[in-house]
Amino acid sequence: MTSRGAGPIYQRIADDLRARIQSGELGAGAKLPTEQSLTTDYSVTRATVRQAMQVLVNEGLVVSERPRGHFVRQIERLTYRPQKEWRERPLHRELDQFMDEQVELGRKPSQTIAVELATPPADVAARLGLGETDTVVIRKRVRYLDGTPFNTNDSYFPLELVQGSEIMHPADIGRGANVVLAELGAEQTHAVDEIEVRMPTPDEASRLEIGLGVPVAMHRVTGYTDDGRPVRVVRNVLPGDRHLIAFERTRPTKHERDTER
Amino acid sequence: MTSRGAGPIYQRIADDLRARIQSGELGAGAKLPTEQSLTTDYSVTRATVRQAMQVLVNEGLVVSERPRGHFVRQIERLTYRPQKEWRERPLHRELDQFMDEQVELGRKPSQTIAVELATPPADVAARLGLGETDTVVIRKRVRYLDGTPFNTNDSYFPLELVQGSEIMHPADIGRGANVVLAELGAEQTHAVDEIEVRMPTPDEASRLEIGLGVPVAMHRVTGYTDDGRPVRVVRNVLPGDRHLIAFERTRPTKHERDTER
DNA sequence: TCGACCTCATTGACTAGACAATGCAGACGT
DNA sequence: ACGTCTGCATTGTCTAGTCAATGAGGTCGA
């Protein structure tokens, strides 16, 4: 049974299990052999078996549900389309564009909103052209789908811009924060999207209730007005096992290409 | 010294070290205390200390360089702009658009190219509208910067489309594979970009020489001709610690919005 | 019938060791 | 001065255990 090959024993055990998962023998949601049974199968101590399990957990292939056992993780990704923010208007007043899409798939969305005044983190300060001692208004949102956290969505606005507006109220803004910004004379016509891939910080992991082996994408949007002034930064944190980020491109015409920049 | 707080000891050790890293006390590249010294600091066995280290390694904060010690990982991300593929023409014949950008920053790029004929993986087959028994031409590339692997770039083409063309030759195509496709009557005017975030498979990890705790982004591009026929799928695997994916958007005019789709 | 309690299989946390592998630095020889 | 060799600090792998925590399922009593 012990498949030959170089390397430490725990790697071989992990390789065997991984192969059984990828071959479909252990399908999504299936229960893996118990640590105990693997110790006898491979004639090693439980510590070694646990090391093998750790490998698979860190790869995101397996989750441990103590004390029921280890299970093959099932991954279901929903498509997240940053571009749609500007393409479609929400159908349901009380939800934003992202959630809207999910309602039609029969899911039950909800969200929590909190508003804070604070100094911006370095990346946000740099993009809004502020110093780190300036104050920003932060709207922190956690979006849920069928009761489990789905992603977080923190928007940062310069205080002076949104002072006293609806944006500072910790309730959903039916028509969207962007519309409110436009009413304040800061309509956005241009945006820069940045995506950073990394493991979650412990805060993020607890806010999103994600387990070990799940990386996140940090999708940062900086919105600019027509005259190039940054007026909004959004940081979306998307757990990797629940999202597929999608966007589309059309080839610019020759004229557009030549006049670019 | 043992900072109080709930949870297992190894978490507290990890928390302490993480705090020292984030506060800047242990800057990028700094050496962490040895496992031995931590065992005495916290009065635990080395197994417990190792568990704490494992946490930080899995978070991508720390790398182990055996047997020199554990070090704070230094992350330097280069900006990757999927949209530029269609916006600018390469300046250097022998390099593609992505590498081109890096040359100007004084880096030394290189790449390896291999061409294979095989059946497509499921995701590619679905997007090209092929069965899993059809044959595709795969151009596999690994791009290096200053000698270390930077990302992989695997392009899939339907065999019948590129049969006998330059695309099947395992050498760099100066004018770009897209130009060759256009010459074959399959000019792409539309593309769908998808980004999936996950931990690397063991192959990917070895191909890209990435350590534990580094997630990857899989950037998949499907290119379509004017009449909606998919002619190319590219799978780029980007290690999270070396890439920042960026793209830009301009708000569509009212007319464009109303006539969309 | 239904809640309270108990048992048990299983994973989590930790101790106390042993030996292997490997860069690095310093000693040594030519 | 320069290559080689050797010792050593440090991490990697593994054994052999103990006790804790917890969800699930079954027992029992009202």
UniProtKB/TrEMBL annotation, chains A, B:
Pfam families: GntR, UTRA. PANTHER family: GNTR-FAMILY TRANSCRIPTIONAL REGULATOR (PTHR44846:SF17), MANNOSYL-D-GLYCERATE TRANSPORT/METABOLISM SYSTEM REPRESSOR MNGR-RELATED (PTHR44846). CDD domains: WHTH_GntR. InterPro entries: Bact_HTH_transcr_reg, Chorismate_lyase_/UTRA_dom_sf, Tscrpt_reg_HTH_GntR, UTRA, WH-like_DNA-bd_sf, WH_DNA-bd_sf. It comes from Actinomycetospora chlora. The lineage of its organism: Bacteria, Bacillati, Actinomycetota, Actinomycetes, Pseudonocardiales. Keywords: DNA-binding, Transcription, Transcription regulation. Residues 7-75 form the HTH gntR-type domain. This is GntR family transcriptional regulator.
